[in-house]
Amino acid sequence: MDVVTCVVIALDAEVRANVEAALKPHGLEARGIASLTELRAVVTSIPVGGILLELATSIKSSPLEKEASNELLGLFPFARFRLAGQEVSILGDEKSLEEFAQRCLRFKSRIVRRTHRESRYFAVYLSPDGQFEDAEKTVTINVGSGGCFAYSSREWKIGDRVWLRLHGEETVYSGSVCFMRSWGNNSAIPGIGLKFDVTPPWA
Question: Using an 8 Å Cβ cutoff, are 140 and 149 in contact?
């Protein structure tokens, strides 16, 4: 059976060590890092099956760090945690570390693309068809040569076709949903990650 790696983000090395020890009995190996800034380097270099972020570290992270890591956190099983003595308390949908570990083990570990995306805010129309009869008025959060992340409160599925047009322009671009984050997840911005069929000139 392949080893499943869970990234543990905590400022304190002792906290990281305690969580690593707690994950082992559940079949997970830990990769500890001290900040959200280090996350991209890890997930673009090794297959990752889940991410745990210490609540105290999350609170101390800068708004820029949080914004830059939002998309990455949405790509994996993710939870915040708190360490009380030797016990790891999971905050969120999972009620225990064991439940979170099971979700990680069911997830197909992945390496994230290395393409860099910048925070860029474009007013766009998103549509499930090329006619834009039921288009959603929204905004991009970040954009790169391969795709973008756009805010959306609609329900999409991985693989859905999407048509996109900038406000005030007529040129239409198409792509597919490569990941989605539902509305109601208060830890991150809801929306969809799009993979462009053809890279727009503004990306």
Answer: yes
